Amino acid sequence: ADPGIVPRTLTDVFEKIGELSSLDLNTQIEVFVSFFEVYNDNVFDLLAKDKGLVKDPSAPGGYKRKPLEVMRSIETDKLHIQDLEERVIKDKTLAMELFQQALDNRQVAHTMLNDDSSRSHSVFQLRVAQENSVSYFHVIDLAGSERLKRTQTTGTRQRETCNINNSLLTLSTCLQNLRFNQQNPDKAQRVVPFRDSKITRFFQVALEGGAKIVMILNVHPAPSEAAETIHVLRYSAIASEVVATQIRPEK
Prior knowledge:
This protein is an alpha+beta fold and 251 residues long. 37% of the residues lie in helices and 21% in strands. It contains 7 helices and 11 strands. Strands 1, 2, 7, 10 and 11 form a 5-stranded antiparallel β-sheet that branches. It has a two-stranded antiparallel ribbon with strand order 3-4. A two-stranded antiparallel sheet has the order 5-6. The radius of gyration is 20 Å and the shape is globular. Residues 247-251 have low confidence and may be disordered.
């Protein structure tokens, strides 16, 4: 199979670092990775030691994963995930090992439509630091919306489905309201509900124009999936009309 976005990105990054280092031996560039998932609207570190488990006598097996908080730094006014583990990587091989480790820790489960259905949204973060400049790259893998009638999920799987759908609905509402506010500056501006979901809260600055964003769609060619394909295309059509009016770095 062809390599995905993350492997290609890591290849490009380390090739570029090699080129810059060969031109200037004094060039010092550090690369850091972190990886987290938003599961039932809670943030969990996918690279945490022991999978982030903490003792909890009330939990099955006596342990549970520790959720992390989206915080705003008082010093920098920047949003971040508190206590999220960040690893230094020296080459693509180590980066891919960490990437695979994180994938293995993601929440997946069987449904009627998918044997390995993603039960969370995941965010791969790459931070590249060079002298006085820092660049960030995020790959957000959004779990697909689900219809309970088709997946026939119950119990825990049903709760996961509801949280996935709610967070996607929040993202859609944010995009729609951003588009409305941009296209109708003379009308009363709509509230953009970034805080209604962890994923939109964390990427609020980016969605407001603080970064360049590209949305990549997954669609199914089967005629039976036509309704879902149309839904996804409408979703992306809204996103394509949101204009990054001001690319501004985070403070």
